[in-house]
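Section 3.1 - Work completed
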Amino acid sequence: MKKQRTKFDLAQADITEINKQLKVNLFVIVMVIFVLSINMIHFVREKSLFYAMLTLLMVVLLFFIIKARRILKTRQQVLTH
C-alpha cells in the first residue's frame, strides 16, 4: 500500500501535482488582485492608514505568490523536457 503525502513537496512532485498547484496558485493570484483593488479603492476614498497598510500587505503577498509561481513553472519545465 502506498503511503499518501499530506503536504505538497516540490522535490517529489510529478507533473500532475505541479499543474494542480499552478491552477491553485492562479486562483489565489486572482483573489489577491481582487482584494488589492478593493483595498486601493477604499484607500483612495477614505485616505485611511488601515487601508494603506492592507494595500501594502497585499502587494507584498502578491510578490511572494508570483515568486512561488515562477518556481513552479521552472519545475514544470524541468519535468517536461
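Second construct:
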Amino acid sequence: MAYREVLPEEDWAVLQSSIAAIFKLIAVADGKIDKKEQKAIENIIAKSSKLRDSMAKEVLASIDSPESLIRTFEGLKISPKEVLRKAAFILDHKIDSQDGVAFKKHLIAIGVYIGNASGSLFNYKMSYEEIEALQEAGDCLHISVKDLEQTNIILDIINTIDG
C-alpha cells in the first residue's frame, strides 16, 4: 500500500520527521553528534530500498537527503519526543496495525544503528545517555525496547541496512 497517497501531507511529514527525531534523540544524547553517527543516517537513507518493510522503505525513500530530513523535522517546530508521540498516534490510529508496529520497530532499529555507529551491535558501545534516549523513544512510540532486544528483529533490520 502506498501510504503517502492516503495520508495527509502533515501526517506524512511527521512520519518522515520521526526518522530525524530518532537521530536527534540518540545522536545528541551524549552531547555531541559523532561523524560516524552522521554517516549512519546517510547510510540508512541510501540503503532504504533494501528494507523488507514496505512502509519503512516508502518513508525513507521519500527523503532526499539528511539535510532535507532535518529541514522537514525543524519545520514542525516541536521536540523529537513530541514528533515520536505524534508518529505513534498516526501509526496506532491511521495505519494498518501490523504496518504501524513494523514501522515502530524500524525506528528503534535505526536508533540502535545510530547509537552503535562507533561500535558493534549490543556490546555497550552506546553511551548510557544513548540507551536512556532509546528507551524514551520506545516509550513515546508505545513499544518496549527491552522486548525488541530479546528477539532478532533489531539485528535483522540492521543487517538489512548493512548488507
